[in-house]
Amino acid sequence: MKAATLAGVDMLDVGGYTRISDIGQLGDGRDGREGVVRQREDVYDLAKGSRCNVHRIYEDNDTSAYKRRVKRKAFEDMIIDLQTGTISGILAYNIDRIARQPRDLERLIDIYEQARRPMVFGTTAGDYDLTTADGRFQARIYVTIANKFSADAARRVARQKFAEAQDGRPHKGQRAFGWKDLEHVDPVEAEIIRKARRDILNGKRISTLHREWAEAGVRAPQTPEGKTISYTSVKYVLRNPRLCGYRAYIPQEHRERSGRLDPVEYLVERTDGTPIVGKWETIFSPEEWRELVDELDARKNTGAGRQVGSTVTKRLLTNIARCGECGSGLNSAMYQRGTKSYEKYGYYYVCKPANGGCGKLSRSGPPVEDYVEKILLGHLKKQAHDVTPTEVEDPELTQAKEKLKQIDADKAEARALRAQDRLSLAEFAREISRLEGKEAELKEKVSTLAVSPIRASSAAARIIREWKSYTVDMKRAEIRRSIEAVVISKAGKGGAQRGVFRPELIEIVWK
Ligand SMILES: [Zn+2]
Question: Which residues of 7-28 are buried (b: 16+ CB within 10 A; e: fewer)?
Answer without folding.
Answer: beeeebbbbbbbbbbebbeeee
